[in-house]
Specification:
Distance between the termini: 84 Å
Number of domains: 5
CATH superfamily of the largest domain: P-loop containing nucleotide triphosphate hydrolases
Number of strands: 18
CATH topology of the largest domain: Rossmann fold
CATH architecture of the largest domain: 3-Layer(aba) Sandwich
Shape: globular
Largest sheet: 7 strands, parallel
Helix content: 40-55%
């Protein structure tokens, strides 16, 4: 059809309320309206939806929009109906959530020509009754949204997307527009090939989101860090992504009991609850949504101010799309990700049992994520390079690595060594293998290829494999090296790399960051605080130890019985000045706080006042124990004087596990009376001798020390039972 640009601008204002098009929108719309196949790569928030919504309004017939998520369809249909008042039939969706009466209404509006946009899931498109219905109407074009779902190399592969082309041909021919916010060059090629639209004009916007700040944090006490961050950003909306449904539920609960309005969202919730939680977030009834990746695709909330990944995503594409939900209005968007090696091991474990080809793809995508997380280079440059785009600046000024750069070094010799190795091998290998050769790592893979006999084996043994991996990654970004994605990431040298090898010049490189093993999020319990062996106020810690000594002397007990070293360390960090706050320190429960706490909080309050200390209230975090059900049951059962064997059986625990649970309860200051059980199991003289050892000789409450000291005289079970009795009667 002939293009009337003035009419397009008029429709833009009439239907959508905008005065001007953004970026390539007008060119894309004109190209599609002319009846051409079109491919759109546009970052989240740049206005992809408009590229098919407006053409649908001005073209003859009905546009079929193939979309993967029911929630996304409903949102977009509601939005279109909002633009065109008094005509709800202008947009519909067709999926499994509709009743028979609703399907009949959709059918009637389609056949009468009222409907301009019909959203369908790819599964719905395959149903014979829907194919028959669509054959009866005139289709203006097909829009394949979230087109990266077509590719196995995409971050959200859906097998049913592979069938779209054959179904289109069965219904009727019409132009196709494919749209995605994230696609590497490999995924772009897959989309064009599978939809058979190689003739499509590609409209590729920059993937750069200049308003977003990117940061990777070591995953140590992530809950505490997240609560501190949210408290420092009052009134701002955010999304927190977790890999497991269990962690979503736990974290949402922890946030709520710490005064942050949050709700969970994952596929395990019923549809009604999911919809309600999503609406509460969109309507700003809550500040934070804690979700799996099931949340967010197509969610139109422009003022999300932060996106936090509690777990590292499985791919860079997934990371980019999820972080892209921050700052869609062009304003502030903070993207924080927590990273630990344990999370990577967990993700690798999830891949086991899948087809080999799928495992290889998954490992390759995950290795890219690891490289991104551990790199000391500009994160913006790394992200854009992944999507085939060069970022010209050396420092973006808006990522952790650029704001806190690591020292660089002249790496020309190291880069030349890598290129020499790549060129010397008769076939190509992956990055990890090349790094192992240079570092002289004598593993099974190296031996199987006899690469331990190479002249360059161990040529860079002064550095680790991690160091050499960092050099190779930077070589890829500088285009000295190339990675063959089709062949699972095999490395080769480029012409530019060979030129550099022949004529090397100064080359500034940086070493990658290192991370701790971190908290993988698998623990059932999240402690209120964690003893870190240092980092507190040394003056206050010394004063607390002196006070502990005085209290212990007055009461005739050893100092550790009053408060443990980790408890005092926490006090020197958190500065608790009420008994309630004191209970937030490790190993200080209700009983210990009441029995010993008053003098300690009075000392801390004076110290804080005299030294004008600003207390880190953000650190005092309440936690939710998933074992609380066990705890209550055990306490009540002991109060009823039930045999420990019966208590263990009732909860499916071994005796060892039950005693560990009881020791945990007692460690927080709760007083239990096990005399009824101990008197049946142990002789009085055995109880007295072990009890006296704890009172007179023990230097701490360590069970290990006690077993070692009393070894040969008493069984471990006897020692544990008497130790529990001693702690309850003397310490708690």
């Amino acid at each position: 059809m002939a293009i009337d640009t003035s009419r397009l601008r008029s429709c833009l204002k009439e239907f959508f309320g905008y005065d001007a098009f953004k970026g390539d929108q007008l060119s894309i719309i004109e190209h599609l309206v002319e009846g051409n196949n079109t491919f759109v790569l546009m970052p989240t928030g740049a206005g992809k939806s408009l590229c098919y919504q407006l053409p649908a309004m001005v073209m003859k017939g009905t546009a079929i929009v193939i979309s993967p998520l029911i929630a996304l369809m409903k949102n977009q249909v509601d939005a279109i109906r909002g633009f065109v008042s008094g005509n709800d039939g202008i947009a519909h969706f067709l999926n499994s959530s509709l009743s028979r009466a609703q399907v009949a209404e959709v059918r009637e509006d389609l056949l009468s020509g009222v409907t301009k946009l019909l959203y369908v899931a790819p599964e719905s498109l395959t149903k014979e009754e829907n194919i028959a219905l669509l054959k009866e109407i005139h289709i203006s074009f097909y829009a394949v949204d979230e087109a990266h779902c077509i590719s196995e190399w995409g971050h959200d592969f859906r097998p049913e997307y592979r069938k779209i082309r054959s179904i289109i041909e069965e219904i009727q021919s019409a132009p196709v527009i494919a749209l995605t916010a994230t696609a590497t060059p490999k995924v772009q090629s897959d989309i064009l090939k599978n939809l058979r639209i190689q003739d499509a004009k590609v409209f590729k916007s920059s993937f750069n989101r200049p308003n977003l700040y990117y940061e990777i944090r070591d995953k140590v006490e992530p809950e505490k860090d997240i609560i501190k961050f949210i408290r420092q950003n009052p009134g701002k909306s955010g999304i927190i992504y977790c890999l497991s449904r269990k962690k979503v539920e736990e974290l949402a609960q922890v946030l709520c009991i710490n005064g942050i309005s949050a709700l969970p969202y994952h596929a395990g919730l019923d549809a009604k609850t999911r919809a309600e939680n999503q609406d509460k977030f969109l309507m700003e009834e809550i500040r934070v949504i804690v979700a799996t990746i099931a949340f967010g695709m197509g969610i139109d909330k422009p003022d999300v101010r932060f996106v936090i990944h509690y777990d590292i995503p499985k791919s860079i594409e997934g990371y980019y799309q999820e972080t892209g939900r921050a700052g869609r209005d062009g304003q502030e968007g903070i993207c924080i990700t927590y990273y630990s090696y344990k999370d990577i091991q967990k993700l690798e474990k999830f891949m086991q049992g899948k087809p080999v080809a799928e495992q290889e793809i998954g490992k390759q995508l995950l290795s890219e994520t690891v490289a991104y997380a551990e790199s000391s280079q500009c994160r913006r440059k790394l992200l854009l390079s992944y999507f085939g785009e060069d970022y010209p600046e050396d420092n973006c000024g808006s990522c952790d690595n650029c704001l806190h750069p690591k020292t660089s070094f002249d790496g020309r010799e190291e880069m030349c060594l890598v290129i020499e190795l790549v060129e010397s091998l008769p076939e190509h290998f992956k990055l990890e293998h090349l790094s192992s050769i240079l570092a002289g790592e004598d593993n099974a893979m190296i031996k199987s290829y006899k690469h331990d006999q190479l002249e360059l084996f161990g040529a860079g043994k002064d550095h680790s494999t991690r160091f050499w991996a960092a050099v190779i990654h930077q070589g890829l970004i500088m285009h000295f090296l190339d990675k063959d994605i089709e062949n699972y990431g095999l490395i080769s040298a480029t012409d530019a790399g060979l030129e550099f090898y022949l004529h090397p010049t100064e080359l500034q490189l940086v070493e990658d960051r290192s991370f701790s093993d971190g908290d993988s999020g698998d623990d059932d319990d999240v402690p209120d605080t964690a003893y870190n062996g240092g980092g507190g106020d040394p003056v206050l810690l010394s004063m607390l130890k002196d006070l502990r000594k005085d209290v212990a002397r007055k009461r005739g007990v050893q100092p550790w019985i009053v408060f443990s070293d980790p408890a005092l360390e926490d006090m020197s960090i958190l500065y608790p000045i009420t008994l309630e706050e004191l209970k937030g320190c490790q190993g200080v429960g209700e009983g210990k706080a009441r029995k010993f706490g008053q003098e300690f909080i009075e000392l801390i309050a004076r110290y804080v006042d005299e030294n004008e200390i600003l207390r880190p209230d953000d650190f005092v975090i309440k936690s939710v124990s998933s074992k609380s059900g066990n705890k209550v049951f055990i306490i009540q059962s002991i109060d009823r004087k039930l045999p420990l064997e019966d208590i263990a059986d009732a909860k499916g625990l071994s005796m060892d596990e039950l005693l560990s649970e009881i020791e945990g309860i007692v460690a927080t200051g709760t007083k239990l009376n096990l005399d009824y059980y101990i008197s049946q199991q142990l002789d009085d003289d055995v109880v007295d001798e072990i009890y006296d050892w704890f009172r007179e000789e023990a230097e701490s409450d360590s069970l290990e020390d006690a077993v070692k000291a009393l070894e040969g005289d008493y069984e471990e079970m006897e020692i544990r039972l008497v130790r529990i009795k001693f702690l309850c009667e003397v310490a708690n």
